[in-house]
Amino acid sequence: MATVCRLGSRLALFGLLAALISGCSQEASLPRVLRVAKGSTNPGSLDIEESVRDRRVVKELQALFQDFDPGLRLHPTSYSEANLVEDIARQTSSGLGPDLIVTNGNTALTLLEQDLTHAIPLQSKVRSRITPMALQRVTTASGAIAGIPVSQYLQLACYDKRRLPKPPTTLQDLAKASGQGKVFGLAMHLEDLYWTLGGFDATPALEDALQATPTSTDHNQRLTAWLQWLQNASFQQNVLFFSKQTALSDQLIQGKLDWITCWSSQLPQLRKALQQHLGITILPKGPLGKATPITRLQVWALGRNSSARQQRDSLKLLSFMVEPWAQKTLALKYRTSFPVNPQVAPIVERQLAGERQLTPETVQLGLSDLPSTQHANSVVAAIGSTPERLSRVNGVLNSVIFGTRNATEGSKALRQTLKGEQP
Predict the structure, then answer these.
(1) Where are the alpha helices (DSSP H) in 240-307?
(2) Which DSSP state fits 115?
(3) Of 85, 236, 294, 308, which is most buried, counting CB atoms within 10 Å of its CB?
(4) pLDDT tens, residue by residue, 384-409
(5) Which pairs from 355-363 meet CB under 8 Å and 24+ separation?
(6) For residues 351 and 3, what is the distance between their CA atoms, to the nearest angstrom?
């Protein structure tokens, strides 16, 4: 009888061990899920079409990643960029925040400043695959990296060929066309307006202020001339400033605007609506130089509610996304953004430039690793590294555009703000 009991106990023990082993095996084979919160590509509200497109893009990214790590799954959710910080704060406080957040460079810095994301522990191998100027744009004043830049969108001019057969190549041409009834639209934030600085050679004055060095009379005059142009433009009946970039594309589609500044991320929506009537060209130059557009980054940041395993998976995914093969594949598949990996960027630039009837030199004008835009991107990076300062700079620009400050007052206030003083 005792032998039977011992045999029964052994069988039960073996059964328990088999169940545990089986359970561990099943757990190991279960897919690992990363929750991805994606802000809308353009600032403003999120529409259904964009949400569907975002989910498809993330799922296709997952398919590309399968050979690299077949057990990883991405669960994307789209959000309005305008409300992204608030939404992430609410989710994080409840312990249900996402593992990864996809947004632009400025919002990534704000999320880190508000302790809603982790700084990125960047390995030298990954660092070498990202253009230094793109990394600078997501680095805080203390040196922390707010997210991994994965792609960059180029700023261009978009217009309706039926309403504006010949787009302006200079700011003077723009003023002349607006006087003849053509309607132009601009967005009124530093990121969207920075291209106009090059036309007045006004960047050196901002650099002087950021470095707290004395500004020459010549630099001050150029900065004031730039602000005066912004104010004069806003007072013209047919040059309209909007607080949201998305409003520009909507107004162009509805036929209420003839020409707008646009980002390459908006091209699918504009092409679908305007088809062969959509014109794409470079931004007009000013009296003292060419336009100096910057790029708008797509940045992936680490959420705070991830487990240690989820964070490791997230970092592995981010490392994969800046690999040359992944960078080239993603850029050429969707044809709206450019790589941040300097090894593959020239290949993609040449191909996409040809499709848009633009010369490679024109496309390169806005890409962040070239000497022609190093000043522009370094200034934007320095301003954006402190979100509060960026907000104050936009406030000064808005006051000049609306006419509550004249150009001379705006120039002084802008320099004070960049120096960290109260304007």
Answers:
(1) 245-253, 267-274
(2) T
(3) 294
(4) 878 888 889 999 999 999 999 999 99
(5) 356/280, 357/280, 358/280, 358/281, 358/282, 362/282, 363/154, 363/338
(6) 80
